[in-house]
Specification:
Two copies of one chain form a homodimer. With 367 residues, chain A is α+β, with helices and mostly antiparallel strands. Helix content of chain A is 47%, strand content 18%. Chain A contains 13 helices and ten strands. In chain A, strands 7-3-10-9-8 form a five-stranded antiparallel β-sheet, sandwiched between helices. Chain A has a three-stranded antiparallel β-sheet with strand order 4-5-6, with helices on one face. In chain A, helix 2 packs across helix 4 and helix 2 (22-38) packs across helix 5. Chain A is elongated. Chains A and B meet through strand 4, strand 5, strand 6, helix 8 and helix 10 of A and strand 4, strand 5, strand 6, helix 8 and helix 10 of B. Chain A binds a DNA duplex (30 and 30 nucleotides) through residues 41, 43-45, 55-59, 61-62, 64-65, 75-81.
DNA sequence: GCTGGCACTCGGTAGACTTGAGTGCCAAGC
DNA sequence: GCTTGGCACTCAAGTCTACCGAGTGCCAGC
C-alpha cells in the first residue's frame, strides 16, 4: 500500500509538524478518532482514558488549549468538549493514520466484484461506484478515462430509414459513439456503403483529435452524405471528449449529514458532472489524497471530505475514484477502499487495453 | 389536454363522489389548496375566507367534522387545523382540478427544449428529466422505450487487439449495443470480416427476441469466432431488454421533504431502477395519472405522490415520464408538465421512428 | 512539569405558565 | 332546518425559571 503523499513534508507551510509534540499529536488523534465515532464533542476525561494517552485529564485540558490556539480543535461553546477543525483532520490524515486495510469481508467483496465483472468498461465503472458505496457507506464517484488518445478503429454508416442513417464510430479503447444523420433526400444503401468505405479509408487509425479530413470522392451524392457524416462526427466531439462520470450511492449522503440543506447542496454538486470531474482532477495531483472541508474551494462542499485515488493505466493517471463523505469520515477505511478499488480498476483497464493499443492490427477495420 | 381518467367513475367504490356535497367539495378544495401552499394545518377561518367558500367558519367547522369522519381530512391534534389525507388528495385530483396549463415561461422552456434538442434518443430522454425538474422543481424520471420490437440493422465485429474484438449491433430504432469478445488465439481481420458478413447475412432484419441462429460456415476458425460472438450476443440481452431509465433532479427531493430520513429512503428507491420502472408501469395503465401516498404499495414512498404520463409512439405507450414529489405537491402543475413533456417526447420519437420502422430498406446492411 | 481539586460556565432538560389558533357545541336567527 | 355568532375548552408552542452535569480554566501542591 502506498503511503499518503508528502508525509511530514520538509517545507510544511506553517510548521504544522513542528507545532505538535508527540503528546499533542496523540491527544489530537484521540479526539479525532472519538469524534469520528460519536459525532459528539470530546471532553478531556474521555481523551485521558483513550489508549495512547497516558496523562491526566488536567494535562489533556492544557494541551487542548494549545491545540485550540493553533487551530486544530474548536469548542462549540465554553464548557463543551472539543471537535476537530479541518486543520485537525488534515493533521490526522497526514501524520496520524496509515491508509488502513480492508477488513476480510470487504476484501472478499472486492475480489468477488472483480471476479464477476467481465463486461464493458462503462458497465464496470458504473458498478464500481456501487462497490465503493457498499465498502464505505459513502457516496462514490468514478471518472473513466477520456477517449482522446484512442484511435478510430472503424466507421460505419447504417441506414435506419430512407432519409435517416446512423454514423457509428468504434474507437480502439472499445468505446462506440453514434449519431443520427438526416438527409434531405432518399439515399440508397450503396451510397451509404461507399461513404462508409471512404470514411474508413481516410480516418481509421487516426486519433479523435486529428479531426475530420475526407477528400472528395468525385461522386456528388456520396460527397453530400460524407458532409452530413462530417457534421455528425463533429457533434460527437462533445460526448467523446467529455469524461465519463458515474455517481453511486447518493442516498448515502442523507445518512452522512443530518441537515437536509447540506444534503441538498451536495446532491446538487453531484448533479453537475463537470464540477465533479474538475474537483477530482484538482484533488488528484499527488496520488492517493484527501481534500477536507474548504480545501478544494467549493463552498457547498465545506462540510465534506473527498477521498480520491487515481486509476492508473500503464503508469498514467487516466481516471479517478472518489468518495464523498462528511469531514468526520472514516479516513483510513475510505482511503483503503478508494486505493484498492482504484488500483484494481487500473489493472483491469490495463489488461483490456494491452492488446487494443498495440500496433498489431492494420487500419482496414472495415469488411 | 386530455381529462384525467375516470372522472366521477359511475361505480365509485365507496360512493366517494356521493359522500361530498358541493359545499364539502369546495371546503376540501380550499383545504388542499391552502395546505399545498403553506404546509401548515388549515383552520376553519382560513377556509371560510377562501374564494369559493361562502359560509361562515362555524359552518366550515361542522363540514370539516364530516370530512374528517369520512377520511378526507385529519387533525394532527385537537385544536389544530386540518390537513388532507391521501384520500383527500385523491378526491382533489380526481374531481377538483383540471390538469392545468403551463405558464407562458414554462411553455417557452418546453418549446426551447424541443427546438434545441436534435440528438440521440438517449440524450434527449436524459435531458428531458432536467426539463421536467426545471418545470416543476420535483425529481423526474423518464423511462425510454425498450428495444424488443426493433430489428437488427447491422452487426459488425471490429478487432481491437490481436485477441480482442468488439461486437457492435445496430438496431432499427437507432440503438447501438456492443460487447467485447476475447479469443484464445489470435484472429485475423479477414476472419473477423467473414464472421461479420455471416452474421449480417443471417441476423439482419430479425427482431432481437428471435435469438441467435447462424449456421456453420464450413470454416472452423470462422465458426469459433461466430460462437464467441454468439456468447457476446446473448450477454447483450440483459441490457437490450432492460428499460432505459433516467433520473433527474434528485436534489429536489431534499427540498420536498424536511425529514432527512424520508429523503434517504426515497433516494434509495430511485437508485433501484427496476423498482422505478415497475412503479411507473403500474401507475401508468390508465393514461395520465397520479399515485398518492401508499396507493402504489411502496412503503418508503408513503409520503410521496407520483405523477405519470405516458409517452406514446404510434398510439402505443412505449415509455413514461414521471414526477416524484411530496403528497402535498402542486398537482395541476405537475400533471400539466408531465403531460406536455410526455406528449412532445412521443411526437419526437414518432417522427424519428417513422422512417426507421419502414420496410423501405433492405436487410443487407453490410457494405 | 504533572496532577488533583475547585470554582465556574453554559447547553440541555424539565416543569410551570402564557398565548393564541382552533375546535365543538349551543342557542338564537333567518 | 340550516346557518351563524358566541363561548368555553383544548393543546402545541413559546417563554421563563431552576437545575443538572459535563466540561473547562486555574491554581496550589507534589
Amino acid at each position: 500500500m502506498t503511503p499518503i503523499a508528502d508525509h511530514v513534508a520538509p517545507d510544511a507551510p506553517e510548521g504544522d509538524a513542528r507545532d505538535l509534540n508527540p503528546r499533542q499529536a496523540s491527544i489530537l488523534e484521540a479526539v479525532v478518532t472519538e469524534y469520528i465515532g460519536t459525532a459528539e464533542p470530546v471532553g478531556s476525561s474521555h481523551v485521558a482514558s483513550a489508549p495512547g494517552v497516558e496523562v491526566s485529564s488536567a494535562t489533556v485540558r492544557s494541551e487542548m488549549v494549545a491545540l485550540e490556539r493553533n487551530g486544530y480543535l474548536v469548542q462549540p461553546h465554553t464548557s463543551a468538549g472539543r471537535i476537530p477543525t479541518d486543520k485537525g483532520y488534515r493533521f490526522f490524515v497526514d501524520h496520524l493514520t496509515e491508509p488502513g486495510v480492508l477488513g476480510p469481508i470487504q476484501h472478499r467483496a472486492v475480489s468477488a466484484f472483480f471476479d464477476q465483472v467481465h463486461v464493458e468498461m462503462e458497465t464496470m465503472l458504473e458498478r464500481a461506484t456501487g462497490l465503493l458505496t457498499e465498502l464505505t457507506s459513502y457516496a462514490a464517484v468514478v471518472v473513466g478515462p477520456s477517449h482522446d488518445t484512442a484511435t478510430i478503429r472503424s466507421l460505419q454508416v447504417v441506414g435506419l430509414g430512407p432519409m435517416v442513417a446512423l454514423l457509428v464510430v468504434v474507437l480502439s479503447d472499445g468505446a462506440v459513439e453514434k449519431r443520427t444523420i438526416e438527409f434531405e433526400t432518399e439515399v440508397s444503401d450503396s451510397v451509404l456503403a461507399r461513404c462508409g468505405a471512404l470514411l474508413n479509408e481516410h480516418l481509421v487509425g487516426r486519433t479523435w483529435t486529428f479531426g475530420w479530413s475526407v477528400p472528395s470522392s468525385g461522386d456528388d451524392e456520396v460527397d453530400r452524405v460524407v458532409a452530413a457524416a462530417g457534421t455528425a462526427f463533429d457533434l460527437m466531439e462533445r460526448s467523446i471528449e467529455s469524461d465519463q462520470v458515474f455517481v453511486g450511492g447518493p442516498s448515502r449522503l442523507a445518512e452522512s449529514f443530518e441537515a437536509v440543506e447540506t444534503v441538498r447542496s451536495v446532491l446538487e454538486i453531484l448533479e453537475q458532472q463537470l464540477v465533479v470531474v474538475t474537483l477530482l482532477r484538482d484533488v488528484l495531483g499527488r496520488g492517493l489524497s484527501v481534500s477536507i472541508g474548504t480545501e478544494h474551494g467549493y463552498e457547498p462542499l465545506a462540510s465534506c471530505a473527498v477521498v480520491v485515488a487515481p486509476v492508473c493505466v500503464a503508469g498514467q493517471e487516466l481516471g479517478a475514484v472518489g468518495l464523498l463523505g462528511p469531514t468526520r469520515m472514516n479516513y483510513p477505511g475510505a482511503l483503503a477502499a478508494a486505493h484498492v478499488v482504484g488500483e484494481r480498476l487500473g489493472e483491469r483497464l490495463d489488461s483490456g487495453r494491452a492488446g487494443a493499443s498495440g500496433e498489431g492490427r492494420g487500419d482496414d477495420g472495415r469488411h
